[in-house]
Amino acid sequence: MKAVTLNGLSKVYGKGKAIAVNKVSFEVSNGELFGLIGPDGAGKTSIFRMLTTLLLPDGGSASVIGLDVVKDHKKIRSRVGYMPGRFSLYPDLTVEENLTFFATIFNTRLAENYHLIKDIYIQLEPFKKRMAGKLSGGMKQKLALCCALIHKPAVLFLDEPTTGVDPVSRREFWEMLKQLKQQAITIVVSTPYMDEANLCDRIGLIQSGDLLTVDTPANIISAYPEQLYAVKADNMPALLKTLSAYDEVLSNNAFGEYAHVSFKDQAIEVNVVQSYLQQQGLSGIELRRTPATIEDCFIKRLSN
Amino acid sequence: MREAVIKTDKLTKRFGEFIATNAISFEVQQGEIFGFLGANGAGKTTAMRMLCGLLIPSSGAGTVAGFDVYKQTEKIKKSIGYMSQKFSLYEDLTVLENIRFFGGIYGLSNQQLKAKSIELIHRLNLQKDKDRLVGTLPLGWKQKLSFLVAVLHSPKVVFLDEPTGGVDPVTRRQFWELIYESVENSITVFVTTHYMDEAEYCNRVSIMVDGKIEALDTPGNLKEKYGATSMDEVFYQLARGAKRGE
Amino acid sequence: MKQFLALIKKEFAHVLRDRKTLLILFGMPVVQILIFGFALTNEVKNAKVLVVDQANDIASRQIIDKLEASRYFEIEEKSNNVHEVESTFKQGQVKLAVVFPLNFHHDLLHQNSAQLQVIADASDPNTAATLTNYVNSIVQDYTTDLNRSEVMPYQVTTQVRMLYNPQLKGAHNFVPGVMALVLMLVCVMMTAVSIVKEKETRTMEILLASPFKPILVIVAKTVPYLLLSLINLVSILLLSVFVLDLPVNGSVLLLFAESTLFIITCLTIGIFISVKTSSQQVAMLISLMGMLLPTILFSGFMFPIENMPLPLQIISNAIPAKWFYIIAKAIMIKGLGFSAIWRETLILAGITLVLLMVSLKSFKIRLS
């Protein structure tokens, strides 16, 4: 039995006007860390809400730990943990009160599954009398994760836990998820940050309600059809412009200090490109082969 | 040396006991893209508000576009543009209405407005959608539109507060193209972001930790200095020890 | 049950930690009672009167003395010139003028009737009417006194007795009205806003995704406000007894039972609004415009329902506050028992039941 199964799941808002989720199908195995990756408005939150039985699908079906999200919503609710996007605890309750409250609501006690949250809670303990609203961004997240874990859920749904969070806290958060994975909890997480994809076992890329692909990050990357080159010059804006106007260029995207470029002719000589760029008046040119990233793959699929 | 559009000297803001921004000093040159990075709660927003004339500093000195951040806040507001992820445009007005409204606020003449809005709509290929309500546009379009609206009056500096949060990778790049274009028109760009690859697009970057600017240089120099291969790593090394958050 | 208690505990924490709101909630009834009780009564006290006494004889002086002795009037100035009336009125201080013509006493003695002119500033028609009534009754008093010595045959005098509120004290009407208003405000608005707040901050999502019965989440929300309202009720009653001198004539227990029923009605309305809206602003607006305004308009404590056109009278029947106002008045002022108000109680209970069913039915266990 799969932990999560989606079968042609669809969601339409406002009398057929906006298709938020368009016939999405994928499976998540037990103990897997699955990432749903896509920008805002891709339909991630709608999928999460349907899986946590908070929204009714308009088409297709889905099941969580073998239970149907429509018929068995009561059973599912007691077996899954859910952390909605943004901060969603009570800011006027203390850290401890929030935890105790959610423990009670889920029919358990803090002590019962303490081993699950121990590593995270230790960091929160010095602030346990502090109002949740006064915690730092990273701490809030940790508390929210504790609250979602308190009843030892079979599946943990985390909707954009790292949105708007600085890179340091993001990294810490993913460390926590890695540890949780070792406790055999299935985790489904969504994020708009492409660089987080590599931290998942398998990912689904999603855009405008359509699931573009589902696979392991390594497979998705190796399936990138062309050879990519990282190109750099002293004047980056000029380089990007020149590349866009260059006949041989198939795709051309800025990636940090480099531009990721692919060419129509896969056998193109690096020298040819280099001398062309020099002719166009660019200096300090650096050109080398580079493996694709998930973001390259996403852009590739979007432009198709 | 070009003239400094933003200049601060030990600019500080206290809220009671709490020092949100602690004696920050830096200069931003005209036509520069300046990346203003920092962990959540490092004091970025406070600093930005002071520079936009929305908050009066507690101590220190600062000028924006040549105007004093204590006494000439109204003049500052006229010579800057501002855009954030949270507030950008009126969702219940159409594209054209938004352009007209914001252009009007900054005192563009009717003739200028007409010319500018045609130019802007053409630039974004919104000819067919110019009468659509902004609320019905995809997020990426909205962000691009609101950036162009923020520079409609050709301000000296434009402040961008996490302009690309949650935007898809393709649109994110198109957004940066727009930034480059406005720099060519000698607009200075002051931008915050959580995407470290975007930090690389900046001419210079500052990284704030616990209210202080811990590092300020070009991305290349910063990477060299901290022995890092990416800005992400530089950031991590600096901000890891941060004590406070939001 | 343990879960339910945890929820209630959490709700109390929300309410008690929000000091500013708490202050408003407890301060509001006190302020309202004091404002309505003292400032906004429709009785007129110490109205300034201009007396133009052209007669200046025994009869006119006796009447003037009587006017002056009454607590309603204060003789502002005396004059001999009728033309001064208008200019005095225009200054705005004086609302009433009493003009005694020449030979007032003489006419009264010899022609058995005399004319007395009462001029009122009717730009405020209610006050003008009240004042002229007062003058009328004082003059009537005087003539009855006269007639006692000089027997006049066949005279009908009306004897008016104001039952339940012999002094026509305004506070009598206002206290039950303010009770209805305050309970409405606290229960409807506060519950609606507090539930919608959880929708806005997305905590409702977690609660809904928990195994806990969603409807109990809502019910638990109402408990602190029920308690808060009962405290408010006590403070209103204490104020009205000790500050406004308005005793509760009927059973206090019955009053509390009926008030609790009304509080439950209001809480149900609050739940209903919160179920139907998704932002605090909308919830607040609906509570204010949709509930408070009709309560003021149609409960009968500001504007008499009997004077309204028939369609409005029919609408007023759907306003719970109207029935509570009738009930509260009956118990507090008339001192009546349950037998006199069972019908109103039944209607109120009926409205509550219907509202409760509708909101339970429209309560979504999912996000819309």
Describe the structure.
The complex is a heterotrimer of chains A (304), B (246) and C (368). By secondary structure, chain A is of the alpha/beta class. Chain A has 10 helices and 14 strands. In chain A, strand 4 (59-64) and strand 5 (67-68) form a beta hairpin. In chain A, helix 3 runs parallel beside helix 5 (137-149), helix 4 (114-124) runs antiparallel to helix 5 and helix 5 (137-149) runs parallel beside helix 6 (167-181). With 246 residues, chain B is of the alpha/beta class. Chain B has 9 helices and 10 strands. Chain B has helices at residues 44-51, 73-79, 95-105, 110-123, 139-150, 169-184, 196-199, 219-225, 231-239; strands spanning 4-15, 18-29, 33-38, 59-64, 67-68, 80-84, 157-161, 188-192, 204-209, 212-217. In chain B, the strands form 2 sheets. Chain B has a 6-stranded mixed β-sheet, with helices on both faces. In chain B, strands 2-1-4-5 form a 4-stranded antiparallel β-sheet, with helices on one face. In chain B, a hairpin with a 2-residue loop joins strand 1 (4-15) and strand 2 (18-29). The radius of gyration of chain B is 18 Å and the shape is globular. Chain C is α/β, with parallel strands linked by helices. Chain C folds into 2 domains: 47-163, abc type-2 transporter like fold (3-Layer(aba) Sandwich), CATH 3.40.1710.10; 171-362, no CATH class. Chain C contains 14 helices and 4 strands. The mean pLDDT of chain C is 83.
Sequence-ordered SSE layout with sheet pairings:
The complex is a heterotrimer of chains A (304), B (246) and C (368).
Chain A lengths: L3 E10 L4 E11 L4 E5 L6 H8 L7 E6 L2 E2 L4 H7 E4 L11 H11 L8 H11 L12 H13 L5 E4 L8 H15 L4 E6 L10 E6 L2 E6 L1 H6 L5 E5 L3 H10 L3 E7 L2 E6 L6 H10 L6 E5 L3 H10 L1
Parallel strand pairs in A: 3-8, 3-9, 6-7, 7-8
Antiparallel strand pairs in A: 1-2, 1-4, 4-5, 9-10, 11-13, 11-14, 12-13
Chain B lengths: L3 E12 L2 E12 L3 E6 L5 H8 L7 E6 L2 E2 L4 H7 E5 L10 H11 L4 H14 L15 H12 L6 E5 L7 H16 L3 E5 L3 H4 L4 E6 L2 E6 L1 H7 L5 H9 L7
Parallel strand pairs in B: 3-8, 3-9, 6-7, 7-8
Antiparallel strand pairs in B: 1-2, 1-4, 4-5, 9-10
Chain C lengths: L1 H16 L1 H21 L7 E7 L4 H12 L3 E7 L4 H8 L4 E5 L3 H7 L6 E4 L4 H25 L20 H31 L2 H7 L4 H29 L9 H25 L3 H19 L11 H7 L3 H15 L3 H25 L6
